[in-house]
């Protein structure tokens, strides 16, 4: 009886490792399609405020190099590289989030191993 339990446990662990590897591979593929460098995001007209000076986010806006990095270290790097970012939210993949936009926030999408699986960006 114990050997069946051990086999099932091993199968579950193997499945979780496979899923994690697949997420990392997909993220690397997405990262390969993104160019590095300074980017500027223009807000849609319906989100624009009266103050025209707040319409463009400043500094680095995307961090494709952080895919596969533990969330704790990714957060430190983001805060260091963009001084206008004041809030880094760590969110488990497939969680619901409020779809508002803020130039001073980055959302880190992580897997069950606390590793970044999507390109972090100002959102």
UniProtKB/TrEMBL annotation:
The keyword Phosphoprotein does not apply. The keyword Signal applies. InterPro entries: Prot_inh_pot1, Prot_inh_pot1_sf. It comes from the Eukaryota. Residues 1-27 form the signal peptide. It holds the Pfam family potato_inhibit. Keywords: Protease inhibitor, Serine protease inhibitor, Signal. Belongs to the protease inhibitor I13 (potato type I serine protease inhibitor) family. PANTHER family: OS08G0441300 PROTEIN, PROTEIN, PUTATIVE, EXPRESSED-RELATED. This is Uncharacterized protein. It comes from Datura stramonium (Jimsonweed).
């Amino acid at each position: 009886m114990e050997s069946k339990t051990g086999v099932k446990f091993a199968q579950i662990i193997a499945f979780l490792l496979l899923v994690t590897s697949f997420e990392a591979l997909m993220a690397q593929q997405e990262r390969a399609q993104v160019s590095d460098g300074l980017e500027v995001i223009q807000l849609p007209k319906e989100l624009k405020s009266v103050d025209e000076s707040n319409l463009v986010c400043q500094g680095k806006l995307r961090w494709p190099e952080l895919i596969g990095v533990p969330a704790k270290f990714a957060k430190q790097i983001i805060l260091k590289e963009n001084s206008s970012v004041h809030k880094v939210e760590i969110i488990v993949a497939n969680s619901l989030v409020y779809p508002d936009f803020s130039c001073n926030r980055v959302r880190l999408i992580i897997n069950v191993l606390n590793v970044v699986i999507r390109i972090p960006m100002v959102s």
